[in-house]
Amino acid sequence: MSAVAQQTVPAPSVRIKWATAEWERAAAFALRREIFCEEQGVFAADDRDEIDEIAIALVAVAQDEIGASRVVGTVRIHEDPTELHTWWGSRLAVDQAYRGRAGGRIGSDLIRLAVSSAHARGCRRFLANVQSQNGLLFQRLHWRSMKEFDLFGRPHHRMEADLEYYPPFDTPQVGFLSRGRG
């Protein structure tokens, strides 16, 4: 019998960055629609709102072994127009295949870039309304719950990031490779 070498397929690399190309923004909206409309049923047809007009989209772009790229995660951030130096994060979405143990740290790394890039732009307070099911993840990432309430018919926590754990990051357009396992 001859030994047959098993060929291993390398895990895709995933870059966490601000969306800089129109295809990245379009793919981010499509992923949000898939998660918040189709999977979770939070919104009927589309989750876009007035915040999208001022928000910065962040994306997790996976590149496979042949160079094909696709958006597998997203979140948006914006500075509060009524409260100077206060930033908000919202609409965190990760493709189902990239969640949890198999997917590594895509969501955590998107959160890290969101807060750190806002911090580099003068953020002194970073807030998010987080679905209760994700509260523990945010607590592990040095966020504290300020209050519980219902939003879109689902339990949420208003949470605040501890900026001490998020040093300013000055090159979000380039971003960084995810520390996840792909």
Superfamily (CATH H level) name: Gcn5-related N-acetyltransferase (GNAT)
Helix content: 10-25%
Category by helix and strand content: alpha+beta
For this entry, what is the oligomeric state of its chains? single chain
Low confidence ranges:
1-10
**Can you tell me the CATH class?**
Alpha Beta
- Average of the residue pLDDT scores: 89
Please state the CA-atom Rg, rounded to the nearest Å: 17 Å
Number of domains: 1
CATH topology: Aminopeptidase
Strand order of the largest sheet: 6-7-5-4-3-2-1-8
Gap between N and C termini: 35 Å
Q: Sum up the overall morphology in one term.
A: globular
Question: What is the fold's blueprint, element by element?
Answer:
Layout: E1 13-18, H1 22-39, E2 56-63, E3 69-79, E4 86-94, H2 100-103, H3 106-120, E5 125-131, H4 135-140, E6 143-151, E7 154-161, E8 176-177
Parallel strand pairs: 4-5
Antiparallel strand pairs: 1-2, 1-8, 2-3, 3-4, 5-7, 6-7
